[in-house]
């Protein structure tokens, strides 16, 4: 018997691995026309949504377990950039067909990450069509404490977590046939949302953004929203090892899909940021400065555009 929409939801997304934990604010979850949610008192609600399309955001042949992880991870990264605690998410899944083996692996990858971050699946939708996944996440942050893009000020310093460019190299490894046993491929297949870093940067960072379109482009978003100029120093950038035919600097600046955090902070916060990085076992590198003016540049060269879905 063909799997119905309600059978699909019940079997794969209302299963025990998506069980709602007591005290998470879910008054009514999956199974009704809509969810009823109760945000924590004295908290701002932080909401983000992303759509992933096969052949645009991930290779069509990518293992469904990794697609499930990635679909939630890129949204959690937005919460990390805002300094928000994950609470709930919804899932809209468009499938060419209801392939039970695919759904089993996809839901397993999705559930594993959801359990790690204690974020509850509270609803969604399924339909037939070309493969795409839309996830909307909800998080909370103490009122007035969210990290934003518009708080950078002249005199601040610029930081980035991790090693931008690694995901672009990882995608090359994936396209060459490597799986999650390969360290670089794993960076692309299973991006790690920097939730813990975002939470600790509240009250420390003046502005923040997650690096999805490339370090230059995303630093440029901070510059635009804050009305400042950002200057990056190439000699300070954390670079990954590449072959001679590739530019490590180009990958770092424009590779995209890293889901690291780029943030700004006053120089007086250097020691605090170093302590946070050490406590998390995470590399956080000071890579530039915030000045008066506009735009973003590296070594005197103005930034090129990062990835744009509808760019010419």
Describe the structure.
The protein is an alpha+beta fold and 312 residues long. The chain has two domains: 8-142, 2-Layer Sandwich (60s Ribosomal Protein L30, Chain: A); 157-302, Alpha-Beta Complex (Phosphoribosyl-aminoimidazole Synthetase, Chain A, domain 2), CATH 3.90.650.10. 31% of the residues lie in helices and 26% in strands. The protein is built from nine helices and 13 strands. It has helices at 5-13, 64-82, 100-116, 166-175, 183-189, 195-200, 215-226, 248-254, 270-280, and strands at 26-28, 36-37, 43-53, 85-95, 120-128, 132-142, 157-161, 207-211, 229-232, 260-265, 284-291, 295-298, 301-302. It has a seven-stranded mixed β-sheet with strand order 8-10-7-11-9-12-13, with helices on both faces. A four-stranded mixed β-sheet has the order 3-6-4-5. Strand 1 and strand 2 (36-37) form a beta hairpin. Helix 4 (166-175) crosses helix 5 (183-189). The longest helix has 19 residues, at 64-82. It is globular, with a radius of gyration of 20 Å. The chain starts with a helix and ends in a 10-residue tail after the last strand.
């Amino acid at each position: 018997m063909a799997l119905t929409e309600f059978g699909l939801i019940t079997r794969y997304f209302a299963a025990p691995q998506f069980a709602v934990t007591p005290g998470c604010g879910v008054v009514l979850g999956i199974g009704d026309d809509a969810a009823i949610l109760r945000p924590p008192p004295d908290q701002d609600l932080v909401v983000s949504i992303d759509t992933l399309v096969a052949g645009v955001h991930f290779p069509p042949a990518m293992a469904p377990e990794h697609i499930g992880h990635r679909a939630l991870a890129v949204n959690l990264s937005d919460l990390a950039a805002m300094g928000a605690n994950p609470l709930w998410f919804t899932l809209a899944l468009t499938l060419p067909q209801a392939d039970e083996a695919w759904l089993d692996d996809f839901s397993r990858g999705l559930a594993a990450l959801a359990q790690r971050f204690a974020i509850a699946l509270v609803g969604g939708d399924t339909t037939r069509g070309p493969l795409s996944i839309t996830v909307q996440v909800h998080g909370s942050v103490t009122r007035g404490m969210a990290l934003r893009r518009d708080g950078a000020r002249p005199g601040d310093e610029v930081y980035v977590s991790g090693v931008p460019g690694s995901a672009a190299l990882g995608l090359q490894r994936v396209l060459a046939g490597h799986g999650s046993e390969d360290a670089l491929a794993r960076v692309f297949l299973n991006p790690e949302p920097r939730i813990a870093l975002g939470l600790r940067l509240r009250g420390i960072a003046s502005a923040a953004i997650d690096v999805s379109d490339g370090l230059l482009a995303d630093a440029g978003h901070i510059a635009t929203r804050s009305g400042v100029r950002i200057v990056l120093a190439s000699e300070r950038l954390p670079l990954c090892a590449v072959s001679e035919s590739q530019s490590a600097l180009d990958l770092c600046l424009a590779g995209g899909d890293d889901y690291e955090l780029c943030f700004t902070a006053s120089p007086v916060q250097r020691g605090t940021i170093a302590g946070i990085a050490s406590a998390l076992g995470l590399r956080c590198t000071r890579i530039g400065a915030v000045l008066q003016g506009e735009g973003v540049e590296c070594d005197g060269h103005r930034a090129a555009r990062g990835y744009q879905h509808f760019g010419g």
